[in-house]
Every structure is written in structure tokens, then in C-alpha cells.
Amino acid sequence: MSIVALDRAGLNATDVSILTALSYKLSSEGLAGACVPATMDDGQCLVAILNPGNNDILFGFGRDLKGYYVFDWDGRPMAEGCTHIAQILTVFK
Q: CA 68 to CA 54: how far, in whole Å?
């Protein structure tokens, strides 16, 4: 087991890969559309999973200095301040 310190904001490449895999799973079940990783101007990485029609955000994922978070299509937080990405994935089980 490894521990990653939350000393900077934004998702890392491993986080993006995990979220992309979640997107594929949801998409194969007809529950989601495309996965859109994005890098902001400040270098922070975020991931959006789109709805099945690919015309709106279904879920957004990120990480800030307080931890990982996920928000829904209306921008309401579903999970915040999680210390590991696995904690936000429990929202989908």
C-alpha cells in the first residue's frame, strides 16, 4: 500500500486512469457517455463523465488541498474531502 500526500491540487495520471475505467464501466451499462479529462490553465487536472447523450456533465471529479471530491450534474457535492480516490468511488457502488 502506498500513501500519496495531498500537497497539491488536481488529479494525477493514475487518478485519471481510474476515473476513465469507471466511465467505461458506466458507459457499457448505458448509464454514462464519454469521459473528458481536462487540464486547466493552472495545470490542475479534472475529469468529467458525461451523460449518455454526451451533452451534459453527469459527474465531475477533482482534487483540492482538502482531498478528492465528486459533484453531480447540478454542481452539488456528492463527496468531499476524501483522502483517497477509492473513497469517492464508493458513491457508485
A: 24
